[in-house]
Amino acid sequence: MSYRKKVDAQQAHIYSLRLVIGLLVCLGLYMAYGWQSAPKDLTIHVPPDLRSGSTRKWWDIPPESVYSFGLYIFQQMNRWTLDGETDYQDNIARLASYLTPSCRSYLEKDLELRRNSGELRRRERAVSEIPGRGIGDASESRIEQHSINDWTVRLDMVADEYFGGERVKRAFARYPLHVIRSEADPEKNPFGLTWNCYSSNPQRIEAPAPPVTGDKHL
Q1: Shortest CA distance to 44 belongs to which of 65, 25, 24?
Q2: Could you report the per-residue pLDDT of 3-50, keeping only the tens digit for each?
Q3: 30 with 71, same domain?
Q4: Which pTM does this prediction carry?
Q5: Do 22 and 73 sit in the same domain of this protein?
Q6: DSSP characters over 107-173
Q7: Looking at the 3D structure of the chain, how many domains does it have?
Q8: Which of 54, 120, 125, 133 could form a cystine bridge with 80, CB 3.0-4.6 A?
Q9: What residue intervals traverse the membrane (predicted)?
């Protein structure tokens, strides 16, 4: 009788060991899957000014990075070096990875509208930030964060257009760019951000006063 109890105890112990081994195998497979599916690259946004150091959550994108992205893409889109008809169209295609589908459709319609009205042919164009109205210069906020995934970037820009080497247009305007998070294709878009055109209509602003270069002596 005691021999039978000992055999039953050994079988129960063997069963418990098999159960533990099975659990360990399942745990190992789960950990292997997690390791395999983990991202190989992780984009960390660091503010440009590192003199005082910075502590950030890995998923947080600082306002400076959003503003720099918006300014860069907007300037690239509006840089026509030879002919606005071809340069504007080429810019839309070249920067497609940094645009949302709706924004690309909007810009393509804008291209056709400007082309039909004769605003592009043989036009050269460049836009730049108005001095004293950048993110670090203006007293008002240039970034409005709506959530962890979208922002409004307010750019105060001056646009110069040339035809045949002569400047034919200079305009000062505020552009409320809508920027959203997008990390679908880091190979083509390392910023992890896309331009979703405008949060509201751009507005004309008054020309800034010329900077004072020094004191005048009578």
Answers
A1: 65
A2: 676 766 777 778 788 888 888 888 888 888 777 776 666 666 665 555
A3: no
A4: 0.71
A5: no
A6: HHHHHHHHHHTTSSTTEEEEEEEPTT-STTT-SS-SEEESSSSEEEEEEEEEEEEEETTEEEEEEEE
A7: 2
A8: 125
A9: 12-33
